Amino acid sequence: MDTIASLFSFITTPVSWIIVQFHSLYGAVFGPDTGWAWGLSIVSLVVLIRICLIPLFVKQIKSMRNMQALQPKMKAIQERYKNDRQRQSEEMMKLYKETGTNPLSSCLPILAQSPFFFALYHVLSNIASGKTIGVLNQTLVDSARQAEIFGAPIAAKFTDSEEKVAALHASLTDVRVVTAIMIILMSASQFYTQRQLMQKNVDLSVKTPYMQQQKMLMYIFPLIFAVMGINFPVGVLVYWLTTNVWTMGQQMYVINQNPTPGSKAQDSYLQRLLKSVGAHGEVRGRRRRNIVQAIVAKGPDRNENERRFIAGLAKAGYTAQADGTVLKGDTVAAEAESASGARRQQPKRQSKSQRQSGGATAQATETKTSLEKQDESPSDAKPEGKAASASSARQAKSGQRKGQQRPKHPSSKK
To answer: Backbone phi, then psi, for 152, in 5-degree steps?
Structure first.
């Protein structure tokens, strides 16, 4: 471990400088030689590093989701070219290139903070030996050697001998109890972080070898850190426990706010979103609207959780829109009614009986008008005209055809 740490000695000066700056701040509150001042300085170093690594963490999340989505295709390639390893590798690289996926992206946060981790280990090892390093002068080294966390010096290790621990003015029992508790907490936090990822934030509809690998890592990683932890100084255990807790909290936030499609976490999130829409009548927040917009855009390709969410909206009387908003059912009906009213109204088609009755009515009206005109004619009008008008009226009432009648045959009876 000392050999590996020496490889990162180039970064010990920046790490020691950051610790000294935080120590000057906390030392003014808790005292310069206390374990609180030096312990909180290490915690603050972790927080600062992890804040700087947030973009890499986001990239890690995207890479892990892309890898999960590609597992069926990768499995198909492996089965198709199982006898040709070279062609299999070429097709895999082609798939990664087409989808813009980098398999190493999921390891970026761990790889990025590894130099800081080993640099801190190198600094604490020199403090335990009483040697100056980086910007830590002899006064600061002596102050750090006296600092204890629950009775264990920050430079002590579980495997240290009783003489070495006594040189740090501490008890071997205290050192081993504190380091054992911190190792257990470090491994447990690592296990829980991986477990909540596998149980809540994995698409359960896709069964792939990738999921089996993740399950194995869920048990292997905590064991690795438990074995390595007995060789870590108390200050390094503080560093690693803090970064595990940060990762756990960061991952819980991602699972609750931006879950993997098809996972249990997505189902829980959409159910909470459905309750929020029912309570407020709208989708609140840009991020939520973006999620609803993405679900609407999928159309028939929605997973079971998303289809259940759309059905829940419909049951509550809402309709999801393409822009991520929702509309109430009566609003949709009113908009449809106004749109149909704007169209040109087409006359209703009349039945045959309605057309016949309408025609008879029009004919009767015309006859009535003609009689009224006859009544208003001068008194010296010919009687034959009146008789003809009366005959026409009788024919109209009897439903006979108007107009000139065909003359009878001479042989017919009068």
So the answer is: -110, 125
Judge whether 152 and 170 are in contact, CB under 8 Å. Answer: yes
pTM over 0.70: no
The whole-angstrom separation of Cα 120 and Cα 102 is: 29
CA dihedral sign, ordered 302, 303, 304, 305: negative
Q: Please count the other Cβ atoms lying within 10 Å of the Cβ belonging to residue 40.
A: 19
Residues 24 and 128 sit within 8 Å (Cβ to Cβ): no
The DSSP H or E segment spanning 338 is helix 329-341
Query: CB–CB of 328/318 below 8 Å?
Result: yes
Name beta bridge partners: 148: 153
116's tokens: 């800081």
Paired tokens of 47? 């927080």
Q: Which of left, alpha, beta for 299 (phi over 0: left; psi -120 to 50: alpha)?
A: left
- What is the chain's pLDDT, residue by residue, as a tens digit (414 residues)? 555 556 666 788 888 999 999 999 999 999 988 999 999 999 999 999 889 888 888 777 777 777 766 767 777 887 888 888 888 888 888 887 777 777 666 666 777 778 888 888 888 888 877 888 888 899 998 898 889 999 899 989 999 888 888 888 889 999 999 999 999 999 999 888 888 877 777 665 555 555 666 677 778 888 888 888 898 889 989 988 998 999 889 888 888 888 877 788 888 999 999 999 999 999 988 989 988 998 999 888 888 888 999 999 999 999 999 999 999 876 544 454 454 554 445 555 555 555 555 555 555 555 555 555 454 444 444 444 444 444 444 554 444 444 455 555 555 444
* Lookup: tokens for 200: 């809540």
Query: Can you tell me the distance from the alpha carbon of 29 to that of 33, in angstroms, rounded to the nearest whole number?
Result: 11
Neighbours of 171 (CB within 10 A): 14
Distance CA(170)–CA(23), nearest Å, equals 22
